[in-house]
Design a protein that fits this description.
This is Group 1 glycosyl transferase. The chain is built from 15 helices and twelve strands. It is globular. Helix content is 43%, strand content 14%. The chain has helices at 20-32, 49-63, 77-90, 99-113, 134-140, 159-166, 209-218, 241-252, 273-284, 298-307, 322-329, 342-345, 360-371, 374-391, 394-412; strands spanning 37-42, 67-72, 122-126, 146-150, 174-177, 190-192, 228-232, 259-264, 290-294, 310-313, 334-337, 352-355. It has two domains: 11-196 and 393-412, Glycogen Phosphorylase B (Rossmann fold), CATH 3.40.50.2000; 209-391, Rossmann fold (3-Layer(aba) Sandwich).
Length: 413
C-alpha cells in the first residue's frame, strides 16, 4: 500500500461556485468529526474516476480538519487482469471466473490488507478491487465502521461475479452506491450518493481568454473554425467510441465540415486500455477529420470541452459518467445514452439529448439538430451549468459523505 502525493485544497476556494449554506453545513459536520481519523482505500492513484474524486475529497476533508488518509493498493498486471474481468462481469459481460483468478484476487488483497498498520476510526474502501481486504481490516479495527463505495453499474451482473463479490461483503457496515438500481449486495445499510466534479481543478476551472487560446494551439491540427463534436472517455469498450464514430459519420453526411475528437487515457488498473485505444485509432486513421487524442493534460481537456460545439457520451454501461457534468459545467450541451448516471445529468431537451445506447443513428441526428440551432445550443448551455452547480459539484458530495460518516459512527457505537 502507498499514499499518493496530493495537493493542498482550501474549502474557501469553493465559495464562488456553491452556496454559503452548503459550506456552513460542511463546517458543522467537520466539527462533529474533528476527532475522527478516516482511511480511503482504492486500487489506483491515476487515470480513473475514483482516483480523480479522491484527489479532491481527501485534501478538502483535511482542510476541514477531518483527518483523512488515502492508500492505494500495490498490485501487478495479473491482479488488474482479474479485476478488469470482475468489472466487466459485474456490468454484464465477462470471461468465465476461474479458480486461478479467485486465488490471484485473494493473494493480492490479503497481502495489501496486512500492510495497513495505523489506527483508524472509519474505513471507506472503493470498488470490488478492495473487497478482499475488508475481513482483515475488520479484525484489526473492530470498532471502526467499514464502508464500501461501489462506483460500478450493478444492474445486470453476471451471476458468478456477483456471487464472488458478495462473499466478501460481510464486514461492510454501510454501502454507498451512485444509483439505487446498483444496490445488488446485501449489507446492513445503504446510501445513494451522486459523484461530483471539482470546479477548482485544472480540468474544470474557468479559463482566461489567453489560457484558452494557448490550449487551443495545443490541440492542433484540430480546428475550431468548423464544428467539433467530442467524446472524452478512457479507452474502454463500455465507452463505445466505435458507436460515437458511427454517430459522427451519420452527422457528417449532413454537416460535411464536421470534426470528431475522441480524447481519453488509460486508467492505471485497466490493462485493456492500450489495446482498445489502438483499435479505435486504426478505425479512424483514414479520416483526417477524426482526431484520436490520448493523455492530454487536464487544462487541455478543459479547453477541448469548452471549445467543442457538442459533447457525446454514448456509453453502453456507465457507473456514473462525470465527464458529462464536466462538459455541462462548461456550458456545452451533451448527447448521452440512457445508461447509468447519464440521465441524472442530461435533462433531455433542456441541456442536451438522451438516446438509447445502441442507437448511433439517433445520436448522429441529435448532433445535427444542435449544430443547426445556435440559439438552442446557448440555451442548453446555460441550463447545463446551473444543473451541475446545484447537483454535481464537490461540496455537495462531501456533505453527503460526512453525513454518512456521522451516521455510521453512531450506529457502530
Amino acid at each position: 500500500m502507498h499514499p499518493p502525493s496530493l495537493s493542498n485544497r482550501s474549502i474557501e476556494a469553493y465559495a464562488p461556485v456553491t452556496s454559503g449554506d452548503r459550506l456552513e453545513r460542511l463546517r458543522e459536520l467537520a466539527e462533529t468529526l474533528s476527532d475522527v481519523r478516516v482511511l480511503h482505500v482504492n486500487s489506483t492513484a491515476t487515470g480513473g474516476g475514483v482516483a480523480e474524486l479522491l484527489r479532491s475529497i481527501v485534501p478538502v476533508c483535511n482542510d476541514l480538519d477531518v483527518e483523512t488518509d488515502w492508500l492505494v493498493m500495490d498490485a501487478d498486471d495479473d491482479f488488474f487482469e482479474v479485476t478488469k474481468a470482475m468489472h466487466n462481469g459485474l456490468q454484464g459481460n465477462a470471461e468465465p471466473l476461474t479458480d486461478e483468478m479467485k486465488a490471484t484476487y485473494r493473494e493480492v488483497t490479503e497481502a495489501n490488507a496486512v500492510e495497513i498498520e495505523d489506527e483508524y476510526d472509519l474505513v471507506l474502501a472503493h470498488d470490488p478491487q478492495t473487497l478482499g481486504m475488508l475481513e482483515r481490516l475488520e479484525e484489526r479495527l473492530p470498532d471502526a465502521p467499514i464502508l464500501w463505495r461501489c462506483h460500478v453499474d450493478l444492474t445486470d451482473p453476471v451471476e458468478d461475479y456477483l456471487a464472488f463479490v458478495s462473499a466478501y461483503t460481510d464486514p461492510i457496515d454501510h454501502a454507498i452506491f451512485s444509483r439505487s438500481a446498483y444496490a445488488a449486495v446485501d449489507v446492513p445499510a445503504t446510501s445513494i450518493v451522486y459523484p461530483s466534479i471539482d470546479p477548482v481543478t485544472a480540468k474544470n476551472r474557468s479559463l482566461e481568454e489567453g489560457e484558452l487560446a494557448a490550449e487551443r494551439d495545443h490541440l492542433d491540427p484540430l480546428s475550431f473554425d468548423t464544428p467539433v463534436v467530442t467524446q472524452v472517455s478512457r479507452f474502454d469498450p463500455w465507452k463505445d467510441q466505435f458507436g460515437t464514430l458511427e454517430a459522427y459519420r451519420t452527422a457528417k453526411a449532413e454537416v460535411p465540415e464536421l470534426q470528431l475528437a475522441l480524447a481519453g487515457g488509460m486508467a492505471g488498473d485497466d490493462p485493456e486500455g492500450l489495446e482498445f485505444y489502438e483499435r479505435v485509432a486504426d478505425e479512424a486513421v483514414d479520416d483526417p477529420d477524426v482526431h484520436v487524442l490520448t493523455d492530454l493534460p487536464d487544462a487541455t481537456i478543459n479547453a477541448l470541452q469548452r471549445l467543442s460545439d457538442v459533447v457525446v457520451q454514448k456509453s453502453l454501461r456507465e457507473g456514473f459518467g462525470l465527464v458529462v457534468s464536466e462538459a455541462l459545467w462548461k456550458r456545452t450541451p451533451v448527447i448521452g445514452s440512457t445508461v447509468g448516471g447519464i440521465p441524472l445529468q442530461v435533462e433531455d431537451g433542456r441541456n442536451g439529448f438522451l438516446v438509447e445506447p445502441d442507437d448511433a443513428t439517433s445520436a448522429g441526428d441529435r448532433i445535427v439538430d444542435l449544430l443547426e440551432d445556435d440559439e438552442r445550443r446557448r440555451t442548453f448551455g446555460d441550463n447545463a451549468r446551473e444543473h451541475v452547480r446545484e447537483r454535481f459539484l464537490l461540496p455537495r458530495q462531501v456533505v453527503d459523505l460526512l453525513e454518512i460518516f456521522v451516521e455510521a459512527l453512531e450506529s457502530k457505537s
